[in-house]
Specification:
alpha+beta; 6-stranded antiparallel sheet; 3-stranded antiparallel sheet; 33 helices; 9% strand; elongated; binds zinc ion
Length: 788
Amino acid sequence: MGEINQNAVEKYLEENPAFAKEYFDKKLRVEVLGEIFKNSRVPVQASMSLPELTQVEESAVCLELLWSVQEEGSSAELTAHKVLQRMAQLLQADRCSMFICRSRNGTPEMASKLLDITPTSKFEDNFVVPDKEVVFPLDVGIVGWAAHTKKPLNVPDVKKNNHFSDFMDKQTGYVTKNLLAAPVVMGKEVLAVLVAVNKVNASEFSKQDEEVFTKYLNFVSVILKLHHTNYLYNIESRRSQILMWSANKVFEELTDVERQFHKALYTIRTYLNCERYSIGLLDMTKEKEFYDEWPIKLGEVEPYKGPKTPDGREVIFYKVIDYILHGKEEIKVIPTPPADHWTFVSGLPTYVAENGFICNMLNAPADEYFTFQTLTQFLGWSLLNTDTYEKMNKLENRKDIAQEMLMNHTKATPDEIKSILKFKEKLNIDSIEDCEEKQLVKILKEDLPDPQAVELYEFRFSDFPITEHELIKCGLRMFFEINVVEKFKVPVEVLTRWMYTVRKGYRAVTYHNWRHGFNVGQTMFTLLMTGRLKKYYTDLEAFAMLAAAFCHDIDHRGTNNLYQMKSTSPLARLHGSSILERHHLEYSKTLLKDESLNIFQNLNKRQYETVIHLFEVAIIATDLALYFKKRTMFQKIVDACEQMQTEEEAIKYVTIDPTKKEIIMAMMMTACDLSAITKPWEVQSQPMMDRNKKDELPKLQVGFIDFVCTFVYKEFSRFHKEITPMLNGLQNNRVEWKSLADEYDAKMKEIEEEMKKQEEGEVVVAQVAEDSGGGGVDDKKSKTCLML
Ligand SMILES: [Zn+2]
């Protein structure tokens, strides 16, 4: 026997396992082992392989790994690293690695997570940070093959294995000779693939190594499964957090849908692990507004041919909320987003809206799962939107009921009716039911003012000398003048009650009060009769137009649409546009639902529907925001009529097309609504003077006349020369306002120069303030140029 060295002893023991077993059983006792493992649990000795370990030692290793597994706060990678270290040691492998298997956009891929682990290597050196990962598809290499087949492999010589790929070796300069690979599987899913590379002191891994490999793989399997379950659990709990949040917050306040969207999405932003996401708010309206259909009906605009939602709506994203989370967090709200907005370019939101499918975009920069999640949210919220929308509709229904209840207080009382329809006094009949309709018509007409006396047919008509009560009678007079009372069998009691109730429906606000409502009705009447626009309309249509004009601002609260938007009233966001006008319309329709107020009660169904439609168009048309949509269309009609040879031709051109009639009517409503500005200077300057704004008012009026009014009356005068008095009135008032504005400017300039000259400028300013405060204009019927 030669020199006894470590290698020789090892060799001998390995070749004589029976001897070794017996020897260690005899010589080593548990206490001795305990002494060895006292300081560090199982010290790692590079030379020690499995056959060298006793069962006691092995169980200590297992126990240690178990401790690691259950250790709190330890990451899956860290624990897996410990296991792989042991594996490298026990298998006498040169190194071990772990590749995780994941899915990106539905395509599985492998990624290096722990590389080149030796029994003594440090975790930090083996752990691969995300941006250094080597990522490859499943059809590359033995690792990919193991994941694909879900089976362990023992490859004695990689050169002879056609799945082997040397791309990793080429990168690192390492030479792989033989290896063991095995997948970690959970259900149908492959979570990872472990590899042991290059057997030390042998040309290949043995059958026994395979067993050891599989055995220790179980540890990694437990760790990864635990980790994966945790991951799924986290997603689930995030999801329920989101849902909980929605339930609590979104339904808490239903005042403003968009604000709710924003709040909710801002909160979940941390869960959406992506760079940016967007919420497209889909227009919920099923039908186009009448004024948007006009250009289509006139053939000026192509009908919509784009995608539609499953319930038949056009896919219109009226607003996008953009959340940018990369770097500096930013939220942008984009109203009427352009088609090239980044979310739309892919066509995906439209596709989702069109089909209601959850879509996953390939090559999306965001991680697969979260892209999916984002889109799920997208759909989730669009569902929520519908839900909220319905709730708000219900809310509106409730409001209707409240309105009906309120109406009982607004509805004209029998005594109020008696103050106009004097059946008791004149017929000496106690109950109105006992009166004959003919008698009632007769006594009512007797008491209605003479149209000539009050200048009902004049564009210059002024309500100043007439009491508000008397204006009700003037209103009734006009219905008789256009001959609709008898023709459409309107019971005069109902007509009186309706007219009186409309008057009561107007609040005592500045400007948008009953006097304004009446004036708009009177101008409509004058346009039809004196302006001879009646020739384009049937009696029924004229009846509806006059009634709608009286109602057009009913229950106005004195604030404008901008105020409604800014105060985020619940209906503001729901309607989106013409908020107040829609309210006036609803109010007017509610009145008609009460049979005792329904002046259209003896019409047939089709006629009634015509009336309601005209009410809608006429009242909504008073939203000045729509004026700019209709003005060109109106101008074209006027142009065309100007070219006609005869009046009959022009009448035919207009009346044959209901759209043209609607456009003219809508423009008539604007002409009526703005008519105050066309009244004789004495009439209009009085109510327009606002003490607080006296100084700026002239300038504002001039601007308003130039920007809005002139077009209306110029075109109407061109259309029908009978309407010229309105244009004349307007132009005369412009001169007056302009001179006031100039006067004010001159005064201001003077003051400025004074101030430059004098060093005690303060004295001058005080003087001016006094001057402008002493206007002495009654501000009760004051205000307003721009509030229409
Ligand atoms: Zn108005």
